[in-house]
Amino acid sequence: MALVCSSEKRGIVTITLDTPANRNALSAGLLRGFTEALDDLGKDPGVRAIVLTHTGSTFCSGADLREPPDPAVFVGLLRQIVELPKPVVARVDGHVRAGGLGLLGVCDMAVAGPGASFALTEVRIGVAPAVISMPLLARLDASAASRYFLTGERFGGAEAARVGLVTAAGDDVDAELAPLLEGLRKAAPGALAETKKLLTARVLDAFDHHTDSLIALSARLFASQEAREGMGAFLERRECPWVL
């Protein structure tokens, strides 16, 4: 199974990314299972909110480089989360890389534990954070976006909270998560859905206007010679040829 949905607890359902052997990479199977789970939960009147978490030491490593997913399918999942009438809260206590930050960026809130680390590593393997720029540029501090998009540097939970990527970070991820979930349980379901629409309007506007061009950019870059060299180096655990 690519995903495991926990039992409901007082209106909160947890979806767990559960392919630790490949660092919860965005494979076609994971995307399909995730989409189906969200579709069911979005229609369930008993679900107040969804927590997205992970097994293993990695929340999500980005695209499965051995079998890269269709960018259109990935964008469809991101948009589905943005449009879902239930708030989605990420619980992160592991590494988040590349496309995994896009997944994090479309969550309504996120908390990071001591094991969390983040990096937009696309430029280091010869591609660009194309489709994930739509949610991330709306969320991140502008100077931080420039720095981390262009350098691929790794940063921790405290910095992620400072620049707007996560809502809170601390030594106990569940202690940080608890007040958010209690607040959601006290909110009226219809009011939550309408309030989420207000908060996501800017991101949806970006999806409406830029999806096609960014999917095309992503596909072109993944097919490029640079990307072939970069992904090969990554999979073979060696430095890329352009490293000075």
At the fourth level of CATH, the homologous superfamily of the domain at 3-172 is 2-enoyl-CoA Hydratase, Chain A, domain 1
Q: Please tell me how large the radius of gyration is.
A: 17 Å
Secondary structure tally: strands: 10
The succession of helices and strands, N to C, reads: EEHEEHEEHEEHHEHEHHH
How many helical stretches?
9
The secondary structure category is: alpha/beta
Strand order of the largest sheet: 1-2-3-5-7-10
Regions with little confidence, pLDDT below 50 for 5+ residues: none
Mean of the pLDDT scores?
Answer: 95
List the helices and strands and how they pair.
Layout: E1 3-5, E2 12-17, H1 28-43, E3 49-54, E4 58-60, H2 71-83, E5 88-92, E6 95-97, H3 99-105, E7 109-112, E8 117-119, H4 133-139, H5 142-151, E9 154-156, H6 157-162, E10 168-169, H7 173-185, H8 189-222, H9 225-235
Parallel strand pairs: 2-3, 3-5, 4-6, 5-7, 6-8, 7-10
Antiparallel strand pairs: 1-2, 8-9
Helix pairs in contact: 1-2, 2-8
